[in-house]
Amino acid sequence: YGNQDDLVYIVMELLEGGSLGKLIVMNGALKHDMTGRILSQVGQSLDYAHSQGIVHRDLKPENVLLDKSQNAFLTDFGIAKLINEAGATLTKTGAVMGTPAYMAPELWAGGIADARSDLYALGIVIYNMITGTLPFFGETPFRIMYMHINEQVPPPSSINPDVTSAV
Questions:
Q1: pLDDT tens digit string along 20-48?
Q2: Helical H runs in the chain?
Q3: What are the 10-residue block averages of pLDDT along the chain, 167 residues in total?
Q4: Nearest in space to 102 (alpha carbons), one of 62, 73, 130
Q5: DSSP tag of 85
Q6: At what angle do helices 20-27 and 115-131 cross, to 10 degrees?
Q7: pLDDT on residue 94
Q8: Which residue in the list 6, 33, 47, 58 is annotated as catalytic?
Q9: Phi and psi torsions of 38, nearest 5°
Q10: Number of H helices, E strands in the chain
Q11: b/e string for 120-135 if b means 16 or more Cβ within 10 A?
C-alpha cells in the first residue's frame, strides 16, 4: 500500500476466479467436497485473523475471492475491528455494520462484534454454499433482523435433498 501524488493505493494478488458469491449464483448449491475445501480455507483465514485479535465483521460470499484453481481467500477487512484494543471502536454508538443476511442476532440488538459474530456469519455462508440460497429473505433489513432473531432456520435438506443429517 502507499500514497503517490495524492493517490492512495493497495496492491494485491490478482484473483481471477471471481467471488464465492458469484460461484453460488452461477451454480447453486456447491458439491460437498468443494464446500469442505472452501470452508477449510476460509476457516483457517478466519482463525488466523481471530488469533491476531481481528474480527472481520462482514463475512459473506462476496468477500471470499477465488483463484483460477478455486482456492478461497478471505478479503475485504474494510470494517474489521481489533478486538484486543481496549475501547476500540470503528462505529458511532448505535451504528450497525455488516451485511444484514449474515449478521448475528446480538448485533441487531446493539451487541459488540467479536469472533462469535464471524462464526455465525460463517455458518450462514456454509448454509448458502450447501443450499444455494440464504436461510432468510426480507424486503427490509428490519425484516431480516426479525427473522434471524425469531425464526428457525429451514433445515438445509428441505432445500437441497443431497444434504445429509450429518452435514
A1: 999 999 999 999 999 999 999 999 999 99
A2: 20-27, 32-51, 105-108, 115-131, 141-150
A3: 88 92 97 96 96 91 96 84 51 58 86 90 97 93 90 94 88
A4: 62
A5: S
A6: 30
A7: 46
A8: 58
A9: -65, -40
A10: 5, 6
A11: bbbebbbbbbbbebbb
- 58 annotated active-site: yes
What the block records as the C-alpha cell of 70 is 478455486
User: By C-alpha distance, which of 113, 135, 108, 109 is closest to 124?
Assistant: 135
> C-alpha grid cell for residue 72?
478461497
Q: Residue 96 has what pLDDT?
A: 53
DSSP, collapsed to helix, strand or coil, labels residue 54 as strand
- Cα dist. 150→64, 90, 145, 147 in Å? 28, 28, 9, 5
Write down the pTM of the prediction: 0.85
Our measurement of the distance from residue 134's CA atom to the centroid of its chain's CA atoms, rounded to an integer in Å, reads 12
Kindly state the cell numbers that stand for 29. 448449491
Short-list 32, 23, 53, CA closest to 118: 53
Q: In the prediction, which pLDDT does 95 show?
A: 52
| Cα–Cα distance measured from residue 161 to residue 131, given in angstroms and rounded to the nearest whole number | 9
